[in-house]
Structure formats: structure tokens, C-alpha cells
Q: What sequence folds into this?
């Protein structure tokens, strides 16, 4: 499949300015440029958890295979029920799940039946045991009005019908899906191969854990948040460490990354006026746009595709600031990576909550404030921010349980005003 050029994607936009890209436009460009990988592997059912289903699954059988009872009770023909009258029936047999009753059930007769047992021939109704009166081994009485015809009967194929789609490809396989596939007797599942993502940090001030922290240096934390986010997304990781700001080292890192991975994520070195070679190397190795996005945190970002020795990879040059890395990952890279994995689009769920305080905000950009969401005794969701919102304050992400998303047109938020929040729980 041919890959579009980034310039073609961008030239379709009438109002594109790399120095002022609205969040929605950046998201759209990324979405239009990124194409899914097509590589399928077959996995044993249990191993398919959290993987992306690569093919539609059509049910090979009816589930359940027979009409069966939804309750422990007595199966009988509902036609015998008379309004306002009780009904006494002779018990002719017992039907167990896995050991049903093959005989016919005549008029005036019933079968003691357990949940899941196939409905005996001639029966269409089950009266639950607890509704009956005077039940003995040989007879039972159904009080007037206890059940109506068809009650407590499950139909053959009511869960899944043979020949009908059971699961659509692109689904991220959840526990319920494992169970559903098992109910179809499917032992091996076609899934997309894992997406390979190479990532490294750039910046001469960065130290790796274990190295001494000399004056002016900081420990590299971005690779760890990225490790966490990418792992949760189900990617195969290639952690390339910290790469010093030297052209030869950067070139080697970028080349190796795009030769071995589907996507490359770097942090740092994309701000304008940075005295480093990162931007330069990205531009040399591929088609990369350098954006100033109308957002806070996370204004500078590079996006495109780089190539080396006939191999290429999508590139996300995230900013260096630790909070900006997480925000740009969640709101730009996450969807793109899911798309590359062949996953169905799953927009982040947005909740509405009442802001507990005023939030200063300038229209014209999107702000992602770290918030603490709670539900009051009155059942109303409320959110407050974590305080200092500097893009270097990673503690704000740790204290928060959600992100307050204030869109482009939003101005200062008044106390009590409703705002959008994206909760972290469930966000990979
Ligand atoms: P930059 O985008 O390279 O200008 O970096 C912006 C800020 O983020 C600077 O204060 C950097 O020290 C900091 N920073 C960059 N990369 C990392 C990293 N990997 N871990 C922690 N802080 C970082
Ligand atoms: Mg830097």
C-alpha cells in the first residue's frame, strides 16, 4: 500500500500554519497520514488479551446449542396455563445441564429441570422452583399467575448465531471477548502483530538513573513515563536511552530507530531556538513538520516520517517537559499508535464536571489542566485543579486523576461552570 506524503496531507488544508496549528488540525493531519500495519499472527486464546483482533470472527456455531432453561424449576407446555387457575402437573423426569431428558412430555406432565438443561420436547415454559407449591418427587402445583408461556426459556443461538459476526476486527480484546471466543470453541485468535516503538530522550542535561547528578543536570524521567504509556498500549518497546546532542550520535540513533521500529518517539529538542541538532537530524532523515500547536502544555512538536536504508517509521518528536510529554502522547500519539496497530478508533471518553473554582484561561488555545475529580454526596461530579500547572511539574500528573480539557474557544472558567474532563483510569 502506498503511503501518502505528509505534504499532500497538509496541502489539503486551507488554513495551515505550522506556527499556529490548532489541536484538532494536528490530530487530523496525524490521523490522515498514519496508516495501519497489516501483519497477523495467531495466538493461543489466553495470550490474545489486550491485543488487536486482526480478522472478523464469525460464529461457527449457535450459542447456546439448544433452547434451555434459565432457572431451576419445572419445564412444561405453557398452553396448559389457564388464567386465574393453578395447574398441577405430574413430574415424569429430571433434566440436568449436560444430561437432558430425551423423552416426550405429554399433557398434564412436566420435567424437573436445572438451569442450562435443554428444554425437553413439548416444553416451552419453565416455572422457577421457588414459585411452585406442594412440590414432591412426583407432582408439582403452579399457582395462578406465577408464569406465562415462554417464561425462563433461553433460545438456541440467542447469545451467538452460527454464521453471524461475533467480534469485529480492530477490537482490542477484553476479558469478555476471551470468554466469548471460548464459548465458540475458538482456540487460536488472529491478532495484529505488536507495534514496535523505539524511543529515546535527547538533551545534554539528562542523566540516566545510576549516574551522578552533576550541577544543572536532571534525571531522564520521560523514558519512564513513555515506557509506562507504551506498555499499557501493548507496544513492543525499543528503549534507546539518552542520546547526547551530537550529530553523529543522533543520526545513528534515528537511523537505528526507524530501521527497527514502526514508530519512533523522541522527547526534547523540538522547541524553536534550541541549540541542538535534533530538529536538524529529523528534517534530514525524512519528511517532518515542526509545529507550534495551540495548546498548553506541549506547544512544540515534530511529526512526520523518517527513513533509513529503505526502512521508514512514523516520527513523533514530543517536547521535553515531562507533563508536555504525557499530554502530547495521550492527545496525539496514542490515537495514531492505535490506528497503526489496526485498532478501531476509540475516542477518549469525556465526562462533564462542575469546576470547583475559577480557572484562568485564554481563548485561542487548548489547555490541559491536571484535575482531581470527585463525586459529591449529591451525586454531582466536581473537579478542581492540582494547583501549579507548570509543564515541568510531573507531580501534578501524579496527584491528578483526570485532565481538565479547556477547548480553544473557552475563556476563563467561573466557579460552578461545567468543564470537560478525561479521566486517567482506563486511559492507557
Ligand atoms: P526541551 O524541550 O528539550 O527544551 O526541554 C524542555 C525541558 O524539559 C527542559 O527543562 C529539560 O531539562 C526537560 N526535559 C527534557 N527532556 C527530559 C527528560 N527526558 N526527562 C526529564 N526532563 C526533561
Ligand atoms: Mg533540550
A:
Amino acid at each position: 500500500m502506498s503511503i501518502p506524503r505528509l505534504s499532500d496531507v497538509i496541502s489539503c488544508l486551507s488554513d495551515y500554519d505550522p506556527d499556529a496549528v490548532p489541536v484538532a488540525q494536528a490530530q487530523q493531519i496525524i490521523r490522515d497520514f498514519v496508516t495501519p500495519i497489516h501483519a497477523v499472527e495467531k495466538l493461543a486464546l489466553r495470550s490474545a488479551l489486550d491485543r488487536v483482533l486482526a480478522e472478523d470472527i464469525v460464529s461457527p456455531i449457535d450459542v447456546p446449542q439448544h433452547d434451555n432453561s434459565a432457572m431451576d424449576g419445572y419445564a412444561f407446555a405453557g398452553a396448559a396455563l389457564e388464567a386465574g387457575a393453578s395447574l398441577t402437573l405430574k413430574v415424569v423426569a429430571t433434566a440436568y445441564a449436560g444430561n437432558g431428558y430425551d423423552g416426550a412430555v405429554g399433557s398434564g406432565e412436566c420435567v424437573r429441570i436445572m438451569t442450562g438443561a435443554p428444554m425437553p420436547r413439548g416444553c416451552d415454559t419453565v416455572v422457577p422452583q421457588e414459585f411452585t407449591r406442594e412440590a414432591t418427587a412426583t407432582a408439582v402445583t403452579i399457582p395462578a399467575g406465577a408464569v406465562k408461556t415462554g417464561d425462563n426459556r433461553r433460545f438456541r443461538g440467542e447469545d451467538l448465531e452460527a454464521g453471524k459476526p461475533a467480534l469485529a476486527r480492530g477490537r482490542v480484546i477484553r476479558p469478555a471477548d476471551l470468554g466469548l471466543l471460548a464459548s465458540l470453541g475458538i482456540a487460536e485468535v488472529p491478532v495484529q502483530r505488536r507495534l514496535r516503538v523505539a524511543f529515546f530522550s535527547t538533551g545534554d542535561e539528562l542523566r540516566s538513573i545510576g549516574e551522578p547528578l552533576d550541577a544543572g543536570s536532571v534525571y531522564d524521567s520521560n523514558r519512564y513515563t513513555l515506557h509506562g504509556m507504551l506498555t499499557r498500549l501493548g507496544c513492543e518497546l525499543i528503549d534507546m536511552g539518552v542520546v547526547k546532542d551530537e550529530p553523529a550520535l543522533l543520526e545513528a540513533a534515528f537511523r537505528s530507530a526507524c530501521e527497527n521500529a514502526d514508530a519512533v518517539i523522541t522527547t526534547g529538542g523540538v522547541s524553536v531556538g534550541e541549540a541542538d541538532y535534533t530538529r536538524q537530524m529529523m528534517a534530514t532523515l525524512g519528511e517532518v513538520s515542526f509545529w507550534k500547536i495551540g495548546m498548553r502544555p506541549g506547544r512544540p512538536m515534530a511529526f512526520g516520517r523518517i527513513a533509513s536504508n529503505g526502512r521508514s517509521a512514523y516520527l513523533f518528536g514530543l517536547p521535553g517537559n515531562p507533563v508536555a510529554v504525557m499530554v502530547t502522547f495521550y492527545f496525539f500519539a496514542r490515537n495514531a499508535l492505535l490506528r497503526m496497530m489496526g485498532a478501531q478508533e476509540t475516542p477518549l471518553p469525556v465526562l462533564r464536571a462542575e469546576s470547583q473554582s475559577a480557572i484562568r484561561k485564554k481563548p485561542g488555545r487548548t489547555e490541559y489542566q491536571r484535575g482531581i475529580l470527585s463525586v459529591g454526596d449529591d451525586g454531582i461530579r466536581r473537579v478542581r485543579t492540582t494547583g501549579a500547572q507548570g509543564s515541568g511539574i510531573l507531580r501534578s500528573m501524579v496527584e491528578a486523576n483526570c485532565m481538565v480539557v479547556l477547548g480553544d474557544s473557552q475563556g476563563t472558567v467561573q466557579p460552578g461552570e461545567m468543564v470537560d474532563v478525561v479521566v486517567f483510569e482506563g486511559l492507557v
User: Anything to note?
Assistant: The radius of gyration is 30 Å. Helices lie at 6-11, 23-33, 175-183, 222-233, 247-260, 278-285, 322-340, 395-399. The chain has a mean pLDDT of 95.
